[in-house]
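#data-curation
PF: Archiving a pair of folding outputs for the training set. Convention for this channel: one message per protein, sequence first, structure tokens after, nothing in between. First:
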Amino acid sequence: MGIVLLIFCIAPLRCLFPLQQQFTIMFDPTGDTQNVGRSIKDTYARNLTLQWVEAIKCDVEIKCPEIMVVLTRLSGETMQPLQNANFANQFNIDLYLNLQLYKKFDHKARLMFFTFLYVADYIGVWPHSEQLTF
């Protein structure tokens, strides 16, 4: 099983140099009640990603009380287009994580890092040379 983790930092300087105040992360698991995602063994991607982010949320909130974790959906919810963006804006999210799983057994999964920078009217994207393979 492969894992895709897309990381978007809304406030990049706060991500690099967190302040002593609350830091908010939003996890966006793949799928909803209408979009089950890929079939993986005897379940679907939407179930696995939701279980995964719920476990991560519990660990982060216990180990890092200054970090608030918000999920874009709960079990049984249906997401509307652009609902996640509105939700993230309401919570003033510092870091947005979209988690996806895919079925691929013949290759190792890779986690690639990209830096997104938004300053005034300029958007820059730089891939990092480091890749995690597991």
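PF: Second:
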Amino acid sequence: MALDLDQLLVKMTASVEKACASQKNASGLLQKDKIPKLVEDLLLESEKNKNNKLKGMSLLALKNSSLLSYINNLALIILSKVELLDHHLEKSDENTKDGEKGVEIEKILNKSIENTVTQRVILERGVKSLEKKLNYQFDKIVNTYKRMEKDSQELDKKPKSIASQSINENDSSDNDGDSDSDDELNFKPDTQSLIKTIKSTSEKENVSTSNLNEKYKPPRISAVAPPTSNKDSLDKPMKSKNKRIQSMDEYLKEYGNAPLLEASIGSTIVNHGRGGVKTNRDREKEREIQDYEENNFVRLPSSKSQRKKSGRESRQKQLNVFGGEDFSIFNNSKSFKSSDFKRKRSDNSSSAWSKAKRRR
């Protein structure tokens, strides 16, 4: 820990020495009559801009000026804090002059902090939002400028390439003049190609006429059963053998790796827990009906069969659901005794002899 403190003190003393040296240099430049060249250039540019009557303020100029003032105020804050440290270290006797000097330094510090805050707000709230809005226009302007430069470079290169091509063409024309006399016999018409084209056109005409004379034959399609959808299973009653139990759905959700979209807590409970719980299929069906009604501006009436079905489902859920939980897995009416597999005789299938016995 001591080593860390020593290192920190060494670094702090070095930074203070550098700040003091920079302060001395700045004060020396201010005392001199000569102004640095950079400052002179900036002053000249500012005077030129004054003569040019610009409408409004440029965004880039605002950004540059605000960044410059922000950095300047940060430097003032660091300098004032260094001066305060020096003032407290050198202060041995409380004098009025030293007190006034400390107050002035604190005033400069507070003012520079306020200026940094204002410039930061300008940069964050003003400049950034405007840059986002004008970013597309800036990119467009830059791209057009780059394209114009590229086109100008290509135009400069084209005359040279055209001149070189013309020279090459003149040389090649002199060389080809001698070879043309030898190759005149090679450029004769090919009669065999003409015969092939005549045959192909005649064959196409024969095929088209034969197709017109024939009867239409529909294409053979193999018989396939229509695809089953979830809507068919939804229309079946609740007592069907292929019914999916809620506990099985919960088990698949718990141990499955697929992403799930869960409803908010309590939104699936119907009639304060008396009407059971809405399943995923019920919610999907309600969503389909809602989408259809909203898109077509039509309210779908509920039929008698649907009302009966909903009442039957609610009664079934009241028997199996308690406190928002499904206990239908424990209410399985199936029994696997040997007597259940025997065929029961109906009253209509009884014989005349059994009827006679009953009469007695």
